[in-house]
Specification:
The complex is a heterodimer.
Chain A (H helix, E strand, L loop, with lengths): L1 H8 L6 H17 L4 H24 L6 E3 L5 E3 L2 H5 L1
Antiparallel strand pairs in A: 1-2
Chain B lengths: L8 H14 L1 H4 L1 E8 L8 E6 L4 E6 L1 H4 L11 E11 L4 E11 L2 H18 L16 E6 L4 H13 L4 E6 L7 H14 L5 E6 L4 H4 L5 H8 L5 E5 L7 H5 L2 E2 L3 H8 L4 H34 L2 H4 L3 H41 L2 H44 L1 H6 L4 E3 L17 E5 L4 E5 L11
Parallel strand pairs in B: 3-5, 6-7, 6-8, 8-9, 9-10
Antiparallel strand pairs in B: 1-2, 1-4, 2-3, 4-5, 11-12, 12-13
Helix pairs in contact in B: 5-10, 6-8
Classes of the chains: A mainly alpha, B alpha/beta.
């Protein structure tokens, strides 16, 4: 089950969750302070980059539009206003 | 009879009415029947209860009707509790209903309990089989009616909390006989399509019959078979269906269902990233500070401030070694010199020199003898050689040829021995003791008998 879920989210690059976990791993490692300086510097850069990417993802992400799956398997925009009446 | 003895209609009706009201059985009757002529009115409700052979008018006052938990419909079988009275203006008797329940609820309830027990025993409700929800889902499927409040509430809530989440509605029949198969079909479609992080299945509030599709075994099994987390939101908070038990999460309302699938709101997520970033920067600063102070400590160490000290130890060792050298070497030289002197005097005393001169004269003597012996031997061999040479000379063919013999050879050097070796006309060489004669063969004659 987990495998199919992963393949579903693997298409592009990493998911938000994976990026966030990586960032947390970097932070935890740096906080322990037992990383060689060269490695710490590159990890820090990596961390800053990931944080920026995550922040950008959240800030710039367009609000998703609600869709409806038709019987033909087509995705169409779901008009919420019409459904209320 | 005097006309005054006749009863008025009103008096008679009052009498009849009193008969009804005085009868304890009439004051609380339990009637099962089918709803007829029902059309909902704003306040009090007037309709009939009937079965195959009879019919009775009923009235249900606003206060009693407000307590009915289900949607009353034409043709519905109901269980009514009320009293019988007479409506004097029309002379009709009627039933005033105080409590009303749908008939057949007992049968449905029994079915519900049976299925509940069966599925629980099968382990369909077990918590450990349930999937965890994604913290940052991308797409969530919703299996519900396109026209209900459910989808509307879900969309509104998701937009408020985590607008990036895409909601995909699978329009589904959620009421009536076709509802269960339709729910099963749409859940199956969701299961087949990948890319959904969770699915919400549900419908709005209604009577137990309305919610019944969510108590169907087929729906329960379809939910259990889902490969992604299922959030159920069926009816109102007080309604619990089998679907709710089987689902991974049961939401009391569609809004709650939408909250389940958006466990982290957008602003929470932003806070998380911000906090991680701050920790990152702090950790980096601390790390740099640590390394810097280590560097400073190293720089401040004696080695860098007073580098001379580094050689202190070596200087001292060189001094000590030099001292030992000065003390030990001359002593050893002295000792060796003593040994040499001693050895020299021993050498003189041992008469070695005399022995050497003796050996030298013996050697000269032996060499002379050796030379002489060699010369004698050579002379002997030389004489031997000349006497043997003479003997050899007597035997030589040259000597024979000196007595007049010759031998003949062809031009190719072959010695011609027999007559057969010769050919007439051939030129041959005749070898004499002092030279060679060139001759031609003119004739040849073989001696008979000699082969």
């Amino acid at each position: 089950m987990a495998a199919s879920k992963e393949t579903a989210s693997k298409q592009s690059d990493k998911t938000f969750e994976e990026n966030l976990q990586e960032l947390e791993a970097i932070v935890n490692q740096l906080e322990r302070g037992d990383v060689p300086l060269e490695q710490a510097l590159s990890q820090f850069q990596n961390g800053v980059q990931i944080a920026g990417k995550l922040d950008k993802t959240l800030k710039n992400a367009e609000d998703a539009v609600a869709k409806v799956m038709t019987e033909d398997g087509e995705l169409k925009t779901f008009d919420t206003d019409k459904s209320e009446s | 009879m005097d006309p005054s003895d006749y009863l008025t209609v009103t008096a008679l009706t009052k009498y009849i009415a009193r008969k009804f009201t005085n009868d304890p059985y009439m004051q609380q009757v339990y009637v099962a029947g089918e709803v007829s002529n029902f059309r909902q009115r704003p306040a009090h409700q007037y309709f009939s209860l009937k079965d195959d052979h009879a019919k009775i008018n009923v009235v249900m006052f606003k206060s009693a009707f407000a307590k009915v938990k289900f949607q009353l419909e034409e043709g519905m079988r109901v269980l009514a509790v009320g009293r019988i009275s007479v409506y004097e203006p029309s002379g009709n008797y009627q039933m005033t209903i105080e409590r009303l329940e749908p008939d057949g609820i007992g049968a449905l309830y029994a079915a519900f309990q049976q299925l509940n027990k069966k599925l629980a025993a099968e382990g369909l409700y077990d918590v450990h089989t349930k999937w965890p929800l994604q913290r940052f889902p991308r797409r969530v499927a919703v299996v519900t009616s396109p026209s209900g409040a459910v989808i509307h509430d879900i969309i509104t809530t998701v937009r408020r909390r985590y607008p990036q989440l895409e909601i995909v509605l699978f329009p589904t029949q959620v009421q009536g006989d076709t509802a269960a198969p339709d729910i099963v079909r749409q859940l199956g479609r969701v299961n087949q399509l990948s890319g959904f992080d969770a699915v919400i299945v549900g419908r709005g509030g209604g009577s137990i019959e309305d919610l019944w599709p969510f108590n169907e075994e087929s729906v329960a099994r379809a939910i259990a078979a889902m490969k992604i987390p299922v959030v159920s939101s069926v009816g109102h908070e007080t309604d619990v269906t089998i679907a709710d038990y089987v689902a991974d999460y049961r939401a009391a309302t569609p809004t709650a269902a939408a909250e389940y699938v958006t466990p982290v709101t957008l602003s929470d997520a932003q806070d998380m990233v911000k906090k991680d970033f701050q920790r990152l920067v702090r950790a980096q600063q601390a790390l740099l500070q640590l390394q810097r102070s280590r560097l400073d400590r190293a720089r401040a160490s004696v080695m860098f401030t007073q580098p001379d000290r580094m050689y202190d130890g070596y200087v001292q060792r060189v001094d000590q070694l030099r001292l030992r050298l000065v003390q030990t070497v001359p002593a050893q030289v002295r000792q060796l010199r003593g040994q040499l002197t001693l050895a020299s005097s021993q050498l003189v005393r041992s008469g070695l020199k005399q022995r050497i001169s003796q050996d030298l004269s013996r050697t000269q003597n032996l060499s002379e003898r050796l030379l002489r012996a060699q010369e004698n031997l050579l002379t002997h061999y030389r004489q031997e050689l000349s006497s043997r040479s003479e003997a050899l000379d007597h035997l030589s063919p040259l000597k024979t040829m000196g007595r007049g013999y010759a031998y003949v050879s062809a031009d190719d050097g072959r010695i011609l021995q027999k007559t057969a070796d010769y050919q007439v006309g051939q030129e041959v060489n005749i070898h004499t003791a002092d030279g060679r004669v060139r001759a031609a063969v003119t004739a040849k004659e073989e001696q008979s008998g000699s082969k």
